[in-house]
Amino acid sequence: MITTRRGSMPYPSGVAMAVRSVGIRARGEQEPSRRTNEQDRGGRSEKVAGLRRREVLRGLALGGAGFGGLRPSSPFVGRARDATPTGSGERFAAEVDAGLDYFRRRAAEQVPLVAALRDGIAEGDMERAKTAYVAARPPYEEIEVLAASFPETDEAIDARPCAIAGGESSPAYRSVHRIESLLFRDGDLVAALPYADGLIGSANALLVDLDRREGFDAVRTFEGMLALSEEVASKKVSSEEETWSDQSLLIFFHNWRGIESQYAPFAPAVELTDASTASAVGDALASAIATLKPYPTGNGVFPAYSAVPASARGEIVRASYGLRDALTRAGSALDLV
Q: Compositional bias (Basic and acidic residues) at which positions (predicted)?
């Protein structure tokens, strides 16, 4: 049981890592420098709301060159004393690096999970393949926060039919969602195998993408957090993210956890700049996670999303919009959005 300011949440210890530090503020020592040239943002953060996410992500990539103060022991928190620009002159470079380090670990963990999925399919074991599919989903659903920096790999790993011209009839549709429909809807292991082979290659490509440091900065980090928190509310609920596996709750949770992992290194700077905003972000994450409290996991698997009533889905929508709004305040406090 993990206790937050919102109450006790009956998640297994691995799942509860994302909420264990909510509402506890860390304090840094130096005030971050403020941006003096408004044009540094290059307009990348404008008009994110209301647009199709993958179009937004592609545009950002082409156009670009615990929440709320977490405990230092949190797996997401970098070195708080590095909460200033490094010698490169990049604002919040240490914070960006801390977030990337976490995602690099998650990407490395994803590779054997995807290989296990491929092996289950190759051996003709449907139940093993389905179990491996669910186990392989969390890492990328966290890393998705920064997908604007690697749109081609994002499409190869995670695109749904609506993002591909021609939908399921297109050979370009080869993501994990292709595998999802072949396993859970069609029961076709033979057809799924080549896509599982390809997914291993895409998972390895992601490792390379995350090492291209020039593709990441603080502005992109905040844009990614805003885009994904809005996508959960505006798209992933309304169009049902995991239609065939029925594991949409798993996706929402790990999207929020990924957002937390990238915000956490910035939390001390937000706290120093605007303590009320830092508190608001912590409250917003707690509210989002609380919407999943009635649906505890079993061995990493959430209850079927099809059993979640409309009223509860509405709470998820409102909570993720609330998270977006709090993050917007935080980004504004740091002059990043």
A: 26-49
